[in-house]
Amino acid sequence: AQSVAQPEDQVNVAEGNPLTVKCTYSVSGNPYLFWYVQYPNRGLQFLLKYITGDNLVKGSYGFEAEFNKSQTSFHLKKPSALVSDSALYFCAVRDYGGATNKLIFGTGTLLAVQP
Amino acid sequence: NAGVTQTPKFQVLKTGQSMTLQCAQDMNHNSMYWYRQDPGMGLRLIYYSASEGTTDKGEVPNGYNVSRLNKREFSLRLESAAPSQTSVYFCASSGPGQGFPPTSYEQYFGPGTRLTVT
């Protein structure tokens, strides 16, 4: 069965420093991986995805993610954090069962950026 | 484009009452989904609809029913609400992506409905 794990409930980083939010996955085939962000009292917003191709994927708001097949990881990164990046981040993997684009979500990582 | 819209935004029910959560999308997506979000548990899939006319159970379907009214609309019904159904409910949709090569797999989410059952 497909799954994703986000090992950190919370990540704290100072504004201007680089940030990393970790995600590892377990799939039976080629992984389709996604990152979403959720601001307080809002729905989830799509940030970026890896389907195939370049291992470094660039997305919205200056975020990028690195796909590492040998380590089964898909960590979200940003070179310089902003206070406005503070939010809940979810990693997700496509579920191969059925004829639709079901996603399996991690439990989320709260990113807190201190000024 | 409004994207995915949900009504209502907030709702308080008493145990045993029923209600229907409405969802609509204007992106001509084939697939639609209902999730619930609870602290520490991420998002859990309740029901989904791969295409108009089909619905299937997700991870936590008990106590819920759904209707795919047409391609745009997908409603979630609580027949007899219980306190365990207190949660934030999100609707999502995704575009054509069936078959190969894939065209789009990401889902787009509505703003959510915060439901409290007392």
Describe this structure in words.
The complex is a heterodimer of chains A (115) and B (118). With 115 residues, chain A is mostly beta strands. In chain A, strands 2, 5, 6, 10, 11 and 12 form a 6-stranded mixed β-sheet that branches. Chain A contains no helices and 12 strands. In chain A, strand 10 and strand 11 (103-105) form a beta hairpin. Chain B has strands at residues 4-7, 10-13, 19-25, 31-38, 42-49, 56-57, 64-68, 74-78, 87-94, 107-109, 113-117. In chain B, strands 2, 4, 5, 6, 9, 10 and 11 form a 7-stranded mixed β-sheet that branches. Chain A binds chain B through residues 32, 34, 36, 41-46, 49, 51, 90, 94, 98-103, 105-108, and chain B through 4, 30-31, 33, 40-43, 45, 48-51, 56, 58, 90, 92, 94, 97-98, 102, 104-112.
Short characterization:
Chain A is mainly beta and 115 residues long.
Radius of gyration of chain B: 14 Å
End-to-end separation of chain B in angstroms reads 36 Å
Largest pleated sheet of chain A: 6 strands, mixed
The portion of residues assigned to helices of chain A is under 10%
Oligomer designation: heterodimer
Distance between the termini of chain A: 41 Å
Strand content of chain A: over 45%
Order of helices and strands of chain B: EEEEEEEEEEE
How many strands appear in the DSSP assignment of chain B? Answer: 11
The backbone outline of chain A, from C-alpha atoms, is: globular
Average of the residue pLDDT scores of chain A: 92
Number of helices of chain B: 0
Radius of gyration of chain A (Å): 14 Å
Number of strands of chain A: 12
Q: Topology of this protein?
A:
The complex is a heterodimer of chains A (115) and B (118).
Chain A: E1 3-5, E2 10-14, E3 19-21, E4 24-26, E5 33-38, E6 44-50, E7 56-58, E8 64-68, E9 73-78, E10 87-94, E11 103-105, E12 109-114
Parallel strand pairs in A: 2-12
Antiparallel strand pairs in A: 1-4, 3-9, 5-6, 5-10, 7-8, 8-9, 10-11, 10-12
Chain B: E1 4-7, E2 10-13, E3 19-25, E4 31-38, E5 42-49, E6 56-57, E7 64-68, E8 74-78, E9 87-94, E10 107-109, E11 113-117
Parallel strand pairs in B: 2-11
Antiparallel strand pairs in B: 1-3, 3-8, 4-5, 4-9, 5-6, 7-8, 9-10, 9-11
